[in-house]
Amino acid sequence: MTGIRAERPETPEARRYSRKDFLKVGGAGLAGTALLGTAGCGGGGSGSGTLTFAMGTDTSGTLQGLIDKFNKENKGSFQVSYREMPTATDQYLDKLTTEFQAQQSDIDVLGADVIWTAQFAANSWITDVSDDFPESEQSKYLPAPIESLIYDGKIWGKPWFTDAGMLYYRKDLLEQSGISAPPKTWPELKEMADQVAQETGTKYGFVFQGSEYEGGTVNGLEYIWTHGGDALDGDKVVIDSPEAIAGLETERSMIESGVAPKAVATFTETETDPAILGGDAVFARNWPYMYALAGTSAYPKVKPEQLGVTPLPVAEGQQSTSSLGGWNLLISGLSDMQEEAWEFVEWMTAQEAEKQRATEASLLPTLKSLYDDPEVVDAIPVIKLGETALESASPRPVSPYYSDMSLAISEQFTASLSGDVTPEEAAKTLQEELTSIQEQAS
Ligand code: GLC
């Protein structure tokens, strides 16, 4: 990695120039990726007084409201326009990769999945904000989201909202079956899901995300972690282990036992929401955002008070953990509006905007102070669970090659879930494939 970085210049004008200039020369040597230097910089950035902000579809509708608010407060200066990107993180990443590799993008600021930092920074697609975001400011935010922004000793953006996988359950249905507490282990979940679905005439016992995409990787890893296994230990690939195989076996058993429909092997978050919020499932694994959708005009059937949330189940004797997810705000290295971009990023990650996203969209804040804010805690019960879940959440592997790894992982996880390969075969194949990706990287 070259990691060239300009000295901090005196004036904002000079700083803007040097950031761009530094990005022009800061390409890192990643095999198989188009690097900076061919088309030079300046392929994008609106530079017209309108700053383009990219993010996947906002199911809650709060994002446009916040952007309107910013634009109103910022009248007379630049305005922000929202460019809607695909909801699924992989499809969004594909679009970004194509634009950045071609050095042609109108995006100035992007909402970015926590797993993208290494790849974007290593390719110099984004701006190093270490000078603007010193450690004294970083300490106001939760440590795990901050960690997701560090690459090569620098920080590449600001944490926006954070995520942890959790188990949702229909409190009212469990009560009808005389069950007073949610399950703690996977076997308990299976038993309860089966019983409650039958007794209450609910279509599915349990739904989760098993499709071949990033969410499939996340769900499979959670089964592996909650059985004491892992995919990587530092740089070492350790997925071909009895614990990891046991995790994949439990995931597969959800379909085999009839607790989950076969279709979960094609489910993303988008299919999970209507299944449980439309009244068709007793349990669901999902992120905190889903809580805010309950009882809305899109999902009037299941009200928030009918939903309980609890940590993900574990295998006997294991600790609960879930995948650390979340989204950061990054500034495109191609943007001609570096100062404005930072201003917008600061505004979106300040107390007021984060609070609004938390109370209206049940997105977990990254600002520590909001976890003690009574208005936030009262409005969104998932916040308290989120805080606990975050303490034990596991990060996905950090690597500029993570997206290659995840493609291989989700392919095998979905094949194992669908019964196309055995969990043993999936673990063995992945041991080889991930090792080979690691070898290419070094
Ligand atoms: C959520 C998480 C993100 C994860 C994605 C998988 O958006 O915040 O980190 O990659 O789900 O579908």
In short:
This protein is α+β, with helices and mostly antiparallel strands and 442 residues long. The chain contains 17 helices and 14 strands.
Give the topology, please.
Blueprint: H1 12-25, E1 50-56, H2 62-73, E2 79-85, H3 89-101, E3 109-113, H4 117-122, H5 135-138, H6 143-147, E4 150-151, E5 154-155, E6 158-164, E7 166-170, H7 171-176, H8 186-200, E8 204-207, H9 214-225, E9 232-233, E10 236-237, H10 242-256, H11 269-277, E11 281-286, E12 307-310, E13 324-331, H12 338-348, H13 351-361, E14 364-365, H14 374-379, H15 382-391, H16 402-418, H17 423-441
Parallel strand pairs: 1-2, 1-3, 8-11
Antiparallel strand pairs: 3-13, 4-5, 6-13, 6-14, 7-11, 7-12, 9-10
Helix pairs in contact: 9-10, 9-16, 10-16, 10-17, 16-17
The chain binds alpha-D-glucopyranose (GLC).
Average residue-wise pLDDT: 89
Helix content: 40-55%
- Return Rg in Å: 22 Å
| Main sheet overview | 6 strands, mixed
Q: Ligands bound here?
A: alpha-D-glucopyranose
Count of alpha and pi helical runs: 17
N- to C-terminal distance: 11 Å
Question: Unreliable stretches, pLDDT < 50, 5 or more residues?
Answer: 1-47
Structural class: alpha+beta
Spatial strand order of the main sheet: 2-1-3-13-6-14
- Categorize the overall geometry: globular
Q: Tally of extended strands? A: 14
How big a fraction of the residues is strand?
Answer: 5-15%
